[in-house]
Structure formats: C-alpha cells, structure tokens
Fold:
Amino acid sequence: MLTMESSYYLESFSRSMDFPQQIALTTQAVTVGRSADSDVIIHNAALSRRHARLEWIHNAPAITDLGSTNGSFVNRQRITTTTALSPGDVVHFAGVEYCLKQKYLTTKNDSDDHTRINYRTLPSNFPIRAREFTELLTNGMVTSYKQAIMDCSGSVYGYELLGRGRHPALNENPYELFLIAAQMGKEIELSELFRQRSFALAQKTHSDKSLFFNCHPLECREPDKLLSGIYQLRKQYSALQLVFEVHESAITDLNVMQRIRAGLRDLDIGLAYDDFGAGQARLLELAEAPPDILKFDISLVRGVGDPSSTHYKLLSSLNAMVQNMGVETLAEGVEDQAVADACQSIGINYFQGFYYRRPVEIPC
Structure:
C-alpha cells in the first residue's frame, strides 16, 4: 500500500538534469527556495531565499507563498493565501514550472537535484485543466450549435455546425478547448468528437439543408485518415447533406487537397474553403483544386458597406474572379444592413453572420 509520502509529487516539464525533476509532497511540511537551508533548493535568481511551503492540510496537499518577491502561482493565478492542490494543477515558483501528479507505484525521488532556469514570464508547458479535458474527451462532454447560412432570396440555404464544450469546469468556447488540446497533442481527437456529436444531433432534427462541418488544420496532414473517418460518419449518417470546410491555413499542399477533394466527391460531400483572405490567399490551390463554395473571411467583408471604399472594390473583384471559375461564394461575418446590402449588390451567393441569425444550440 502506498504511503502518503509517495502519493503526490510535483513534476517538472523540463528534462534537464540540473534541477529537481520531481518534488515529493510528504506529510511533513517542506520549504522551497534558493537558500541552502530550504528543504528543496532551486538555484534560480527569480526565487526568494525562502519562497514557498508545501504541506498537508485536511488530508490534501497545499502550497503557501512565504512572502516571495516574484510570487507563487497555481494555474497561473498568483496566490496570497494557503491554497489546496489537486492532481493536474500547474504550480509556478516564480518562473519555475511544475505539475502536481499522483503516483500509484513507488518511484525514485529525485528531490536532491537542482535547477537553473532564466525567469522572464510564466512558462506554460503544462496544460491547465488537463484532467478535466481528458474527462471531456473520454465522456464525450460536448454539444453542437448551428448558424444559418442564407441565400439571395432570404431563405435558409444551410447551417454551419459549431462544436461547444459541456464540461462544468471548462470553458465551452472551442477556441479555449483547442488551446488545451494543443498542449496535450489532442487537437484531432477534439475535432473528431465535435464532428461525431454534430452529425448525431443534426440527424435527430431531420435536417434537409446543407450542413457545413469543419476540421482541424492538422487533420489535413493525414488525408487518408481524415477521409477514412469521414467515410465512417457518412455511412452512419447517409441522409445528411454535407459540405466539408477546410480552413485556408490548412490548404498548403496541392496534391493533398486534390486527394481530399476527390475523396469527398466519392462520398457525395461538398467542399468549401473557409476564411479565404484571413491570411495568405492560396490562389493556386483555388485554381487547381477548386471547392464548390468559397467563404470570404470577415476581414474582407467588414467595411464593404460603403460602395466607394477599397474594401468594396476588392471584394467585388475577388467575387467576380472566383465565380468565373465556377465556384459559388459566401460572405462571413455580415453584421449590419449596409454590409448585407453591399454583399447582395456585389453578387455573392450566400451570407452568414449575426445580422441574419446567431448560432443556436441543436436540441438533444
């Protein structure tokens, strides 16, 4: 049976052998600092001589800052009182980063090693909320929203499917979730989970409209795996009318895009290039692997309300060029009537934005 002394430990992300890889949290309080009389010595000028104390309070590990100059932090928040710790918490002594972990087997205690790290700002090698994020993936704790896409007549042409988190301890915003996923190397898993849940919910609504769904740019690096996953979903949800969105940043390899485009056509799934104009407009890929629909980024759409403006002239020229290639166009981020009217006069095919509809949750 494990003793309390070996149950929890702080682990460093760095693989340097010059400082403690692990700091065991024992039932006896220990001090951390750079002075020789500290129980755990970290040779780093950013730490105070007696920087913090690690101890057990109410049968749980805790940390107390000892009035240090540069502070102690839990999950990147500076602490001012004794703070309880849980597995997965990220702890900083000034700029020296550790993560609290729980061990189930006795391992070697390397707490006599020393560290030398330059302190500038809080490093972020360990993801905050890693345990909660793992629960989200394991238990499928996500849902889906949909935002209407309108046609020129003012009717709903389709919907974009938008993933959201549903873990009580995590932000539901997909941007925040993908930040955690990136630190854990789980971006593709999160993207696949959003896709699975979006299709399942859309199937229940008996939607007969086109449904636009996304991928993470990393997925395009493994096109065979991507298409295999989409194939499985297509078999499961064969009645859905689907349009696959590829972000402009993912369109980096012409051969890959041609393979993806051909694979999607075999599955009777449309292709859209998303956020065109947000970064480097890839005109070669547009010509050699044309999508069915091209979505103009909000950065191109914003400001076109004035027909005499440079924005209006640029968008009008791009729209004419794209449509001459046989590709339909969609304006993203339409937020007011002036922009909506301008996009209509330019001749764009479809429209999306708060002016028309805000995203709404798809009922379970």
